[in-house]
Amino acid sequence: MEIAAEAYRYVLENQQRFVEAVQDHLRLSFTALLIGLVICIPLGIVCAKKQKIAGTVMSAVNSLRVIPSLAILVIILPLLGTGFIPALVALTVLACPPILINTYLGFRGIDPAVIEAAQGMGMDERQILRKVEFPLAMPLVIAGSKTAAVEVIASATLAAFIGGGGLGTYIVNGLGMYNFPMLLVGAVPVAILAILSEVCFAGIERLVIRHQRD
Known about the structure:
Layout: H1 2-13, H2 15-49, H3 51-65, H4 69-80, H5 84-108, H6 112-120, H7 125-155, H8 168-176, H9 180-213
């Protein structure tokens, strides 16, 4: 309890610095997630419809999942240096696999009979994609986005190792100086943000599923 009280006191005495760290962490995490969504949802749809490229793309993406987060940062460090951009690139790489894989599975899992029925109603490919396929695949896409969000928020703490800022700075400094209250100042908010992101995406997922059933 004493360590927690010291951590709380530190936050009160350094509110501006703490708020800036939270803002940097959120900006880094959400930007990486947004870029991952923009890249991987269209790519997942293309892979689901064109099996010739699906095997190569999915194998490459699956290989990224076995690389530790810190290893990705270390690999990018000599290429892009330190700061926000290298950390953003590394986190985007981490965000891509769950989004791409779930998008691919969501569209591949649609019953062909549903597509044939839509074609029989006179819908073209764009209408089928927008009105039939995308709504049916949406729960899996959201589930992949939820996984990506949690991974990115947690891994963004490692950005401090390459000067990316965020709450990871408190964790790194706390470990380096054996300052456990400072360690809590970084670790507890990251855990809360990760839990909140999971709860938000889970709520969106439930709403989408409920809407489909109605």
